[in-house]
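Subject: Sanity check before I submit

Could someone independently write out the structure tokens for this chain? I want to compare against mine line by line before I put it in a report. The sequence has 159 residues.
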Amino acid sequence: MLELKLLVLLMVANGVPILISKALGERLAVPIDGGVRFIDGRPLFGSSKTWRGFISAIPVTGLAAWGVELPFELGVWIGASAMLGDLFSSFLKRRLGVPVSGMAFGLDQLPESLFPLLAVRVELGLELIQIAGLVAGFVFLELAVSRILFQLRIREQPY
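---
Independent answer below. Compare away.
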């Protein structure tokens, strides 16, 4: 049951920025990197990584944790570390020349699920095999839900 709750929180943390973006469009969409370019001349993260998405994911994931009977603070920690994982993957994707909102299978899913699970591993007593299973489950769910969101015209890319 804990694993299912954690998958829900991972999906919430990573889904909130997409839903907020769809709901608000360009309003309050301030890029985290402020348009700064790295030494390679490419964007640090890219324009799709906004403060709005980053900040909104954290308390909403906390509320989702409370909703599945886990501590609010645990959800906040999962939300924040999922967003850090997302920034990490965006940073790496820009270095690899993947365009903003472009897909890089694995790189899009692993950090944003692995970082939060490692962050709460000790507190929840998670074994590495559980973390591996949860990451695999997240990858599968993320790809399936992403296609559904694309068909509903909530997401712009079908991955």
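---
OP: Matches mine. For the report I'm noting this point. Residues 105 and 159 are 9 Å apart (CA to CA).
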